[in-house]
Amino acid sequence: MNWSISNSDECIRLFSSLKAKSVYSYDFSTLYTNLPLDNVYENLEKLIVKFFKKSNCNYIAANMYKGSSFFTSKSYQSCKMYTLPKLLDSIKFILFNTYITFGSQNFLQTKGIPMGGNSSPILADLYLSWLEFQYMNKLIKSDYHRAKLLSSNCRYLDDIVTPNFNNFLLDSKLIYPNDLVLEANKTDDSNDNIRDHFLDLDISINKDAFCFNVYNKVDSFNFKVISFPFAKSCIPTNIGYNTFYSQLVRYLNICSTVKYFQIKTKVLLDLFINHGYRKFLLNKYFLKFCLNNRGKLLKYNINNFTNFQKDLGQIY
Fold first, then answer.
1. The pTM is what?
2. Each residue of 81-102: pLDDT tens digit?
3. What is the dihedral of CA 38, 40, 42, 48, to 10 degrees?
4. Hey, where are the domains in the chain?
5. pLDDT per residue over 109-119, tens digit each?
6. How far is it, in rounded angstroms, from Cα 34 to Cα 20?
């Protein structure tokens, strides 16, 4: 009923269960600074009232030390307790009391919320989620098939990807306010409807299935971009090796085929060697990665990790 996700892994899990036909991605040209404050508060108020009513509790308890919160009807001294009116007042204060200092003058921001504010991402995400929920709630009663297709959409803040659904821009005008302009990363009438990118995913279609590879927009730049730490920098060397290991885990989670994984890993290995890291230690971290992720590597039908390394041009 809404399309908010926390990371690209959720998108992979959802898409992997679908029969692939097309894929398109979109993003809001400007989100935070274009949010209409009155409309944001009005919709967040409806959402929060619905939450409290459904919980049948008097408070939301927020434990700042544990980073957790929960609905309750009891009061806890270790938590910050929010009643419905107090929570709404807090949100109203945040939305309508943003000031900017320029020189000796102070200005009240009357449209949009500040980028980089602690609460800005969650306020924007909840607002968009509620708008999507309201649209889907109406659509499911009038056109169940269309609602079913839209239910596979994924949105991470201001980025949206729609599988097997063309011309989403038409629906978006019925969902989001005119202040928020949604733009396609490619034209909806493009013949290339079998490949697009979303977050760090390069999504393509092969034999009615969605395939995933690692996407990095700097790969298409016509100049060199410095990435990852150098071995002789002020950063401890073990951080570099651990970064290499973490990237392997990310590639494994994303890449649908062993070929995709091998190509990305070979590029990564060469990059770290050129940054001054020792090849035998990189190979040691690679073997550690293989041993710690034996279960996940089964999707590539890998039985011999030593041969797997040699296929990447490594000698362990």
1. 0.88
2. 999 999 999 999 999 999 999 9
3. -150
4. 1-36+111-201, 49-108, 216-311
5. 999 998 888 89
6. 34
